[in-house]
Amino acid sequence: MDISLHMLLIVCPLVFLAGFVDSIGGGGGLISLPAYLFAGIPPHMAIATNKLSSSLGTVISAARLYRYMDLRLAGACVVCSLAGSGAGSFLALLSSEDLIRYMLLPVLPVVAYYVLRQKKLDASGKPSLSRRNTFLVCLPVSLLVGAYDGFYGPGTGTFLILLYTSLARLDLLTASANTKAVNLASNIGALTVFIPNGKVFLPVGLPAALFCIAGHYLGAGMVVKNGTKIVKPMILLVLAILFVKLLAGE
After folding, report:
1. In this structure, is the dihedral angle defined by the CA atoms of residues 244, 246, 249 and 250, taken in order, positive or negative?
2. pLDDT by residue (tens digit) across 11-59?
3. How confident is the model at residue 96 (pLDDT cuts 50, 70, 90)?
4. Which of 2, 133, 173, 186 is the most exposed place for a label (fewest CB within 10 A)?
């Protein structure tokens, strides 16, 4: 597949926006994955290349939140996420491109609902789980969401935060910090499958990664409350365009 200026002009600005959105409130995959599809990159390659750019961007957020991680819990969850993501990526390679393309129609509205709704995620006021039970909840959550991220991906970070706060009753800061580590692991797990199978389109993925890093860097200092007001309309616009494109059969 040959690179074109047209691809870069579509992908790079939208991936920058995705990184900006993701660093503020999650949901960047709702923009970045459609960006690769808009540019005419085949679905398998779009998912794989998106993992490259998003993983490098997530490094910035993970480094920023490192001090707030529960390192022992995060480490165990990272292992589960790597395993789940590897399995999900193999499943993606076995699936037809039409299945991956058109599963956007039922999946994206569900993901968008959780990203765009007004979320009150803080678990304060709820009784904490025991240390053992916290691990028993977080490990399978990380495995399953990691598998989803390896197979498809958009909304992974939001799902993790929702499940870590609601089921494991982690406080929001710890949940957000651990999510960055686990999400980075799921991206890396997917790349270990996609790269050897030639699915990562490096001529677009590497420039896009630089834009994703810039987006994460600039968005990192934004206040979440104000940032959410900016990103929600952007995500809605991208979803609307994607739905029109898919329904038109392009």
Report:
1. positive
2. 999 999 888 877 766 667 878 888 998 899 998 899 999 999 999 988 9
3. confident
4. 2
